Amino acid sequence: MSDATKLSAEKRTDFGKGAARKIRRAGNIPAVMYGHGTAPVHITLPGHDTFQALRHTNALLTIVVDGKEALALAKDIQRDPIKPIIEHVDLVVVRKGEKVTVEIPVHLEGEAAPETVVTLDHSSLQVEAEATHIPENVVISIEGLPAGTQILAGAVTLPEGTTLATDPEALVVNVTQAISEAALEAELAEAEAEAGIEHEAPSEAAAEGEAAAEGEGAEAPAETTEA
């Protein structure tokens, strides 16, 4: 992603939770921008535009403060756990041509062989890329892959200009044989047997139920007297 979203920001001098709440009530977002040995700059970002821009992973931003522009990446985004609100953003200043280390999501493409289960062990990979050319994602094809296939991070094809920072031996995709219903029932039965759980045979349970019902429904014998 090389196009940077431009956001106009204002410097702020009020800090603390009270000041941050006031900024959010006004529909804006408190943020801090730092990097390259410069002192941190506390700013206020426009709420709606910032929220939309940060919907994209590793979005490159052009922050305009007092008429001066700076390229930045969101290093940390604090979101409300319930409401769709961004509470605070940490921005790190970057420069064109500079290499940065970021996490990019992994997307799987295609379908593996029949009767297999595909597990994505790493939903993202850490890579090094130019700040102005960070890939949006990395795509891995699983089309027709048989059971037993494992794809390690080092075997993943990365976009041009991007190098892997994750451990090359890290397991990313694991394709295993799907377990049949009969095999699953056998495993459950074995587990229950080991745990000492016993199930009464259906015929025995039914016989006992019928006997109990007959006992409850039987009438007491009538008494007779002799003349």
Automatic annotation (TrEMBL):
Ranges of compositional bias, category Low complexity: 218-227
Key word Lipid biosynthesis present: no
SUPFAM superfamilies in the record: Ribosomal protein L25-like
Large ribosomal subunit protein bL25 beta domain: residues covered: 99-177
UniProt entry tagged with the keyword Zinc-finger: no
Domain Large ribosomal subunit protein bL25 L25: 7-91
Keyword terms, alphabetized: Ribonucleoprotein, Ribosomal protein, RNA-binding, rRNA-binding
GO biological process: translation
Gene3D superfamilies xref list: Ribosomal protein L25, beta domain, Ribosomal Protein L25, Chain P
GO MF entry, a single one: 5S rRNA binding
GO CC terms in record: cytosolic large ribosomal subunit
Disordered as annotated region, ranges: 189-227
Function, in words: This is one of the proteins that binds to the 5S RNA in the ribosome where it forms part of the central protuberance.
Protein family membership: Belongs to the bacterial ribosomal protein bL25 family. CTC subfamily.
Subunit structure: Part of the 50S ribosomal subunit; part of the 5S rRNA/L5/L18/L25 subcomplex. Contacts the 5S rRNA. Binds to the 5S rRNA independently of L5 and L18.
NCBIfam families: bL25_bact_ctc, PRK05618.2-1, PRK05943.1
Name listed for the protein in its UniProt record: Large ribosomal subunit protein bL25
Organism: Intrasporangium calvum (strain ATCC 23552 / DSM 43043 / JCM 3097 / NBRC 12989 / NCIMB 10167 / NRRL B-3866 / 7 KIP)
